[in-house]
Design brief:
With 388 residues, this protein is of the alpha+beta class. Helix content is 58%, strand content 18%. The strands form two sheets. Strands 1, 3, 4, 5, 6, 7, 8, 9, 11 and 12 form a ten-stranded mixed sheet that branches. Strands 2-10 form a two-stranded antiparallel sheet. A hairpin with a 2-residue loop joins strand 7 and strand 8. The model has no long low-confidence stretch (mean pLDDT 83).
């Protein structure tokens, strides 16, 4: 009888014991896969949260607008690598109605664009550059259609005694993710909006740091030079709350799963101990006809591998459904609006399954080794004497 036939015969002959071992391995496999799914979900949420909001801080005034010169000095704050200033004002149209106008220094850094609630339909990078370094206006698609305006046309905005004329450099539209009550302002470059408002003022001044790790140091330095009457807010405070919430739930679930995994491994060692002792007569006979202990251990490992691989597949499919439910629960505990769309890549799940299979096989082999040590330490004569 060949090595593989001998192992297969041993598994099929002891059906009850094989089923018990298979159930334990299914439990361990399911818990291991669940651990991987939860870890992958946490990683996906963390990456989504970090990608959603660029690290930085925003300066505002409780009194409303404030002078730009009050925050210009913060541009030289260590680790500040960019900024976006805005001024919220309005213009009066021919019918006497007010249209919201927002002057910006970096259009794509506005929350409505970073959250993909708005997108540029025409103009692209040229529109962004014009608003950052030159003059221009980006208008909403419905406004352009109503006024029959296209790229390159001139738009005159009037407020009180001030009037500005901007060339239309871009057209934007709301996406399906935008709230139903979203406004459709006219975006202009900052200088044009300040001229329209008649003051060199800002509504918000947002500063970005070169790294999330330098954010706290930059905020501390900025607060030390912040003008009186202004307030500073960490842009990432909402993300930090999300990550703290996820970490708390995940830690609780992970500890529970680790406890179940440890209990399953302990039960496996105990069952394998009885399993190997029940075969001590078989071991004695095989040793007496010249089989080495290494070959016997290899045969037992092969038998358990024949059980472990299909058991792992069953456990993986069972844990897939449970993992989906747990991941949904974790996602429901956080404000997904703060982190945007969260999805776990298929590659990460495949890698998790492969790692889990290797880990389960390692647990099985180590458990078998622990269970067989008392037998492997005996001389063949001692084993044969136990048979009598």
């Amino acid at each position: 009888m060949t090595f593989w036939n001998q192992a297969f015969f041993a598994v099929t002959r002891r059906r009850t014991k094989s089923v018990v071992l298979a159930l334990i391995i299914i439990l361990i496999s399911g818990v291991f896969v669940l651990q991987g799914v939860i870890t992958s979900t946490l990683t996906a949420i963390t990456q989504a949260a970090e990608n959603q909001i660029r690290p930085g801080f925003t300066v505002t005034s409780p009194a409303g607008d404030f002078q730009q010169k009050a925050v210009d000095a913060l541009l030289s704050t260590p680790h500040v690598s960019g900024h976006n200033f805005t001024l919220d004002t309005s213009a009066e149209n021919a019918e006497g109605h007010f249209q919201s106008v927002l002057g910006v220094s970096d259009l794509l850094e506005l929350p409505t664009f970073t959250k993909k609630e708005s997108e540029l339909k025409q103009g692209g990078d040229d529109a962004v550059t014009q608003l950052r370094d030159g003059t221009g206006a980006v208008i909403a698609e419905p406004f352009a259609a109503a006024q029959k305006l296209t790229i390159g046309d001139e738009l005159t905005l009037t407020r009180d005694d001030e009037s500005i004329t901007c060339r239309i450099v871009g057209i934007y539209a709301l996406t399906e993710t935008a709230p139903s009550d979203s406004e459709l302002p006219i975006y202009t470059d900052l200088k044009s909006a300040q001229k329209l408002a008649g003051k060199d003022a800002l509504s918000t001044a947002t500063f970005y740091t070169d790294s999330r790790h330098h954010l706290d140091a930059a905020i501390t330095e900025a607060k030390a030079h912040l003008a009186q009457g202004l307030e500073l807010k960490n842009n990432n405070s909402s993300v930090a709350a999300v990550l703290d919430s996820v970490a708390g739930v995940t830690t609780l679930i992970s500890r529970l799963l680790w406890a179940v995994l440890a209990a399953g491994a302990a039960i496996l060692v105990l069952v394998l101990t009885f399993w190997t002792r029940s075969r001590i007569h078989e071991v004695g006979v095989l040793l007496s006809i010249g089989y080495s202990k290494r070959r016997l251990f290899a045969q037992f490992v092969t038998e358990l591998t024949m059980l472990a691989v299909p058991s792992f597949v069953i456990g993986m499919f069972i844990s897939e459904g449970i993992g989906y439910a747990l991941s949904s629960y974790v996602l429901n505990t956080v404000n997904t609006a703060a982190v945007g769309d969260v999805s776990v890549s298929r590659g990460a799940l495949v890698l998790t399954a492969a790692f889990s299979l290797v880990a389960v096989l390692a647990i099985v082999v180590v458990s078998l080794l622990i269970a067989m040590i008392p037998i492997l330490r005996l001389h063949p004569k001692q084993i044969l004497s136990k048979m009598s």
